Amino acid sequence: MDLTTLLVGVAVMGAAFVKGMAGMAFPLVATPPVALLTDIRTAIVVLLVPNMLMDVLQIARKRFPLEHLKRLGTMMAASIVGTFVGTYLLVTIPVRLVNLIVAAIVFAFVGQNLWATPVAVPARWEPVTSPVIGFVTGVLNGISNISSPVLAIYLLSLRLGKFDFVKSISLVFLALKVGQTAAVWRWRPFTADRLWLSGAATAFALGGFAIGLQVQDRIPQRIFTRVLLGILTASGLALIAKALQ
User: Is 102 helix (H, G, I), strand (E, B) or coil?
Assistant: First the structure.
């Protein structure tokens, strides 16, 4: 195993731990270091397989959330459409501007939750808001490979418990990544070298993911929510730093 593969594996393992603990943020944490070690297209391809595998494991873990699949079906469909639109817009919209907008949304939400009455989306609004949020997260995924902040904000606003949050966000993430795989197919990205690196990254990811799941099972709901808010804050800071580069 060469040094690049080892470093990619370590970066992916750390991101997978966060994914297992919080149910989100794998691309956000893993994409920058893997892209630095390789390139952005290679990073996207390498991270697709472990990302989708972890989402499948989270969805199927303990029991399959059929009720969540029904509830989020329109969001998942809209997210796939949004991913194709975002991939098309990738060369026309400044990613820097997108990152700053998402960061502003993140900080507004975190501040509202910490210092005022947390935002709550009424259940009667879901038939309208869910597909809209799905489309927006798909567009963000296509443009920047980062969609978790907006999606997490929305799911937290639905007042989902820890188990329901993880199941729901994993379902939508899986739809996003399936859509992204189809959207980037025109690159002919799946070379032998990239697939080998993706396989090695997946092995590292499963180790970090397993440890993260153990932590997730043991932390209470209040701490889980605080962890998510902390990850969102870090996401906002990372997006601003990326925009200012």
Answer: helix
What is the length of the chain?
245
Query: In the Cβ-directed half-sphere of 55, how many Cα atoms lie within 13 Å?
Result: 22
Closest residue by Cα to residue 54 from 99, 85, 15: 15
> Is a pLDDT exceeding 80 seen at residue 242?
no
Q: Which of 36-40, 89-93, 125-129 has the lowest mean pLDDT?
A: 89-93
- What type of residue sits at position 222? R
Q: Are 144 and 98 in contact (CB under 8 A)?
A: yes
Q: pTM of the predicted model, to two decimals?
A: 0.82
Q: DSSP state, 219?
A: S
Name the residue type at position 55: D
Q: Using CA atoms, how far apart are residues 208 and 193, in angstroms rounded to an integer?
A: 23
User: Who contacts 143 (Cβ-Cβ below 8 Å, separation ≥6)?
Assistant: 86, 87, 89, 90, 93, 95, 98
Contacts (Cβ under 8 Å, ≥6 apart) of 139 = 82, 83, 85, 86, 89
Q: Tell me the average pLDDT across 150-170.
A: 89
Total domains in the fold of the chain:
1
* pLDDT tens track for 181-218: 888 777 677 788 889 999 999 999 999 999 999 999 99
Return the number of other C-beta atoms located less than 10 Å from residue 210's C-beta: 13
Which residue is associated with the tokens 């935002």?
119
Domain hosting residue 204, numbered range: 3-244
